[in-house]
Amino acid sequence: MSLVDELLGEGAVADLCVWKNKIKSGITFVIATHTWYQLVIMETRLVPFLCSTLLVLMLLLFIWVKFGEPLFIWRAPTPEEIKQKDSPVRTLFSEIEGLLLMLYEIAILFVAIIYTLGSYISLLTVIYICLVCLMTIPVLYLLFQEVVDNFIEDVLEVKDKILEIFKPSRRSYGRVLY
């Protein structure tokens, strides 16, 4: 299992990032690029842009429901399903709670980073750069996996050598009483 598979896991987001389905990944990349271009370069106002986007999405949803399959087929869990200890619904809620706690802990760092970068760069540009990195770095890693892994091993060896230098010695100097 490669490092990219360990970090991203399996699923739709991971498949988009490593371009397993080139059409879906390309569409995602083009939509993100177009949105960034409209909002940052063309200086489109955010609220009218969001309204226009929502109108288009509502139109697509109407066409899909009218002429195709319904978008969501899902029922709400019953209280009995939630109360069971081995219930998949309870497991799902536990997983969501764990993810939310993890995101809460990470959020403080990201708020500080975004605050600092926000004074220099537009937030939309930062988000777009993150998306571009998210969609290119995994592919580059998969192409040059051996080179990157060898480099990381070399860096880890150097790090261990440096840490050995700074490790405190185990000599005791005895107690001095005054």
Automatic annotation (TrEMBL):
Record PROSITE patterns: RETICULON
Segments traversing the membrane: 46-65, 99-117, 123-144
Entry's Gene Ontology BP terms: response to bacterium
Domain Reticulon: 13-167
Topology of this chain in the membrane: Multi-pass membrane protein
Cell compartments where the protein resides: Endoplasmic reticulum membrane
Coiled coil: none
Coarse class of the protein's main subcellular location: endoplasmic reticulum
Domain of life: Eukaryota
InterPro entries cross-referenced by the UniProt entry: Reticulon (IPR003388), Reticulon-like (IPR045064)
UniProt-recorded name of the protein: Reticulon-like protein
One Pfam entry name: Reticulon
Entry's Gene Ontology cellular component terms: endoplasmic reticulum membrane
Keyword terms: Endoplasmic reticulum, Membrane, Transmembrane, Transmembrane helix
